[in-house]
Write a structure and sequence with these properties.
Order of helices and strands: EHEHEHEHEHEHHEH
Number of helices: 8
Bound molecules: adenosine monophosphate
Number of domains: 1
Largest sheet: 7 strands, parallel
CATH class: Alpha Beta
Strand content: 15-25%
Shape: globular
Low-confidence stretches: none
Mean pLDDT: 97
Number of strands: 7
CATH architecture: 3-Layer(aba) Sandwich
Distance between the termini: 10 Å
């Protein structure tokens, strides 16, 4: 089973649209017989997405450092759940388990994971596809900033091309299906 790692908010965001987004991401995964890898929390956009996959009898793998488990945010019903010693080990495992990466709206943690997975692609530590779901234009400014970095000579065209920006779930689903055959 191909697995998609999703980076997204540990907060719920303002308004109902982010909840719908989280559920739709869960449906894209289960409708295409894929498994979900994520940060393992029961809270925020992350938790809603995991619940949606689990409700459809899908597979969800999560990993957390002990410190976060102690904060009692771990999801209690995951298919596979590992507790590790640090954020570094946790991210390494999430990246190793997955066949593709998707970033959705979130905060610093989401940006950290997105930039890290792109940096690792840049360094050729992996060759797995990376997508940015620009849900309702949430990432417009970030996409502009990536282009600015490229224009100013700090990011090559080749490396800018490591991230595929998609605006809709239809586009995301089509892209995931074609690269994870
Ligand atoms: P943020 O975007 O700052 O809410 O952080 C969310 C991202 O960072 C997720 O993709 C997680 O992998 C990780 N993360 C941050 N906070 C938590 C948390 N309380 N529980 C689990 N993962 C978290």
């Amino acid at each position: 089973m191909k697995k998609v790692c999703v980076f997204c908010g540990s907060s719920a965001g303002n308004g109902e649209s982010y909840k719908s987004m989280a559920k739709e991401m869960g449906s894209v995964i289960t409708n295409n017989n894929m498994g979900l890898v994520y940060g393992g929390a029961s809270i925020g956009v992350m938790g809603t997405m995991a619940d949606e996959v689990l409700e459809a009898d899908g597979e969800v793998w999560g990993v957390m450092p002990k410190s976060l488990v102690d904060w009692e945010v771990a999801h209690p019903k995951l298919t596979k759940f590992e507790v590790v010693d640090s954020m570094h080990t946790r991210k390494q495992l999430m990246y190793d388990w997955s066949d593709a990466f998707v970033a959705m709206p979130g905060g610093f943690g989401t940006l950290d994971e997105l930039c890290e997975i792109l940096t690792w692609a840049q360094l050729k530590y992996h060759q797995k596809p990376c997508f940015l779901l620009n849900f309702n234009g949430f990432f417009d400014n970030l996409v502009k900033h990536f282009e600015h970095i490229n224009k100013e000579g700090f990011l090559s065209d080749e490396h800018l091309g490591l991230i595929t920006v998609v605006d809709t779930f239809e586009e995301l689903e089509k892209s995931l299906k074609s690269c994870l055959v």
